[in-house]
Write a structure and sequence with these properties.
By secondary structure, the protein is mostly helical. It folds into two domains: about 1-15 and about 255-485, no CATH class; about 35-235, no CATH class. About 85% of the residues lie in helices and about 0% in strands. It has helices at about 1-30, 35-45, 55-75, 75-100, 105-110, 115-130, 135-150, 155-180, 180-205, 220-250, 255-290, 295-320, 325-330, 340-350, 355-370, 375-400, 400-425, 430-455, 460-480. The chain is globular, with a radius of gyration of 22 Å. It starts with a helix and ends in a 5-residue tail after the last helix.
Length: about 475
């Protein structure tokens, strides 16, 4: 399981590095301006429903129900559920896409009220193009979740590589001529490529396909019953994202872009470590729960949390203490000004405070979903969202962009604590003291690595020295015990 996780991390790391290249190119060609504000807002809206799919509610609920069905009636008779889900998904994504295109002006006017009219117009035009992305990423996301359940992790993990390549290509070859419109077209092309790359593996598994929906299927009904509370939570999260956009639109020009750029850097360890580990562990958790192997659930979760801490806590140290150097290295070129570097690095520092909690939420939520408990994660998510919105309103006046980032970090901490405590009470009690001891070791070695690298001027050498010192403390335990260290 952990070997698969490491392989996925390598692919995800490559994708995230390409994502940073993409972000760097956007900063180089367009800076942090009304054009990038419009692009980021339009993309976020076009991506509004994405978490309903693949890695979100639909894919997460589908896996345990499909596993139970396959155990009961076999793989061949279970295929009809796959057909029904994908065909319904295609209809849903197509309808939402048409609505986004038709009502793009209204959507932009409602969500980013603080934008000048010219910026709103740019965002609306971009949304009309990028709305089509939703159909392709929706189907690609769900098929990826199906492939993950069949222990095929590498191809689904590689889809984002193609997405980033498409946008990078569009910026380099068409950015000067067509501006941010080129990126919008690149998003759509990237979505098409993501779907095309997972189709061959999917066809090998199902070997056939039927364009029909069995509305009498009890498992299909179960999926949508379990999805209802998750949908409420996801809509709440998406509304929270929209509210963040609302607050950010009232910052000075470039504020939205600064927060978005900081998020992309912050998402590097989140995607490489947090989501990769959660993706690999979830099918194992689901099968262990179906077989009532609670000891496997306990061991998998404890190792998952410890492995996350081993990777995320040093990442937090680097992103908090070396934020300005990192932003200057990645984005500080071309049209990206020194002011943009300052506000982006400040945003990154405050986002990074909540990095472990945000990654931990991905893991603990899947533990609940494996138990077919979709209500509690949603309830805790809504609580954290309310806290986030309240803190946004409270902190934006005094802390501006820093306040919005800090609000996200605090809300993530509350969400993780609620998930961890209730899962221990309701389902499986994890070894808390073992987790705390491991965390202290990671914190101490991270501090030593920071001290040893802090006064080095060159950011490349600084990061290399940090990594060498940190890994030196863990080399012997890892050699002796392997994954048992976690």
């Amino acid at each position: 399981m952990f070997r698969s996780g490491i392989l996925i991390m390598i692919i995800t790391l490559a994708s995230r590095i390409l994502g940073l290249v993409r972000t760097s190119l956007i900063a180089y060609y367009f800076g942090a301006s009304k054009f990038t504000d419009a692009y980021f807002s339009a993309f976020k809206i076009s991506n509004f429903f994405r978490q309903l799919l693949g890695e979100g509610a639909l894919g997460t609920v589908f896996i345990p129900i499909y596993n139970d069905r396959e155990k009961a009636v076999g793989a061949e008779k279970s295929k009809s559920l796959i057909y029904s889900v994908l065909n319904l998904l295609f209809i849903f994504t197509s309808v939402i896409t048409v609505l986004m295109i038709v009502f793009s002006d209204n959507i932009i006017n409602i969500i980013v009220t603080g934008y000048p009219e010219e910026t709103k117009k740019i965002a609306s035009n971009l949304l009309k193009i990028m709305a089509v992305y939703f159909v392709f990423i929706g189907l690609a996301g769900m098929i990826s979740a199906i492939l993950n359940n069949f222990r095929q992790f590498l191809i689904p993990a590689s889809t984002s590589l193609l997405f980033n390549i498409a946008i990078i290509f569009s910026i380099i070859f068409y950015g000067k001529e067509y501006g941010v419109t080129a990126m919008a077209v690149g998003v759509v092309v990237g979505g098409i490529l993501q779907l095309l790359v997972v189709l061959p593996s999917f066809i090998k598994i199902v070997r056939s396909y039927e364009f029909k929906i069995d509305f009498k299927d009890e498992d299909l009904k179960k999926i949508f019953i379990l999805m209802v509370p998750m949908l409420l939570g996801i809509f709440a999260r998406q509304i929270n994202s929209v509210v963040d956009q609302f607050f950010a639109s009232h910052l000075a020009s470039g504020g939205v872009s600064a927060l978005e750029n900081a998020t992309r850097v912050f998402n590097l360890p989140l995607g490489v470590f947090g989501i990769s580990i959660a993706t690999v562990i979830y099918p194992t958790l689901s099968r262990a729960i179906s077989n009532n192997e609670l000891d496997v659930v306990k061991k998998s979760l404890e190792r998952g949390i410890n492995f996350l801490m081993f990777l995320i806590i040093p990442s937090m140290g680097v992103l908090i203490f070396y934020a300005k150097d990192i932003i200057k290295l990645i984005l500080g070129h071309g049209e990206f000004s020194s002011n943009s570097i300052n506000i982006t690095s400040e945003s990154l520092i405050y986002y990074s405070i909540g990095l472990f909690f945000y990654t931990g939420v991905h893991l603990m939520s899947r533990a609940f979903y494996g138990m077919k408990d979709t209500k509690r994660p949603v309830m805790f998510s809504i609580i954290s969202i309310v806290i986030n919105i309240g803190l946004n309103a409270l902190l934006i006046g005094s802390m501006r962009h820093r306040g919005l980032a800090l609000a996200t970090a605090i809300a993530s901490m509350v969400n993780f604590i609620l998930l961890y405590v209730v899962f221990n009470i309701k389902y499986v009690k994890l070894d808390f003291m073992n987790i705390v001891k491991f965390k202290l070791k990671v914190i101490i070695t991270t501090i030593i690595a920071l001290i040893g690298s802090f006064y080095i001027g060159n950011i490349f050498i600084k990061l290399i020295v940090f990594s060498v010192i940190y890994l030196a403390f863990w080399a012997l335990p890892l050699k002796k015990k392997g994954v048992e260290v976690f």
